[in-house]
Write a structure and sequence with these properties.
This protein is of the alpha/beta class. It has five helices and six strands. The longest helix is centred in the first third of the chain and has 13 residues.
Length: 147
Amino acid sequence: MTLKNKKTYMAKPNELQKAWFLLDAEGKTLGRLATEVANILRGKHKPTFTPHVDTGDGVVIINAEKISVTGAKEANKLYRYYTGHIGGLREIPYRRMMERKPTKIIEHAVKGMLPKTKLGRAQIKKLRIFAGSDHNLTAQKPIAVEV
């Protein structure tokens, strides 16, 4: 077989099979869970992965308030955002963010691991996070996965 006959597989958007996965965040480390979720959203867990095509699947995360972090991150980690006004830099400590919006912690971690392009913005839309153990996505028939 010559080199000319070998072809690289490129996934086409209309040929893809999409699925939904259910992950339980209880007792999981934030960064390790976020990398697994980012890989599923991008489609890197499939043999048909193509970098420029959205080959990923949807992810449902439950028990977001029971996620853990290692080391002194619980006391030292800060979430920063800028309001757009002069002197508008806001810093929220991890503990306060966990009390108010535990879903934003996981979303922020996963979003940082996705590409900063139109493709990455499309992939983050397939992520659903719930603070408790109940979710409203039973119609998607998510497959429970242990990470």
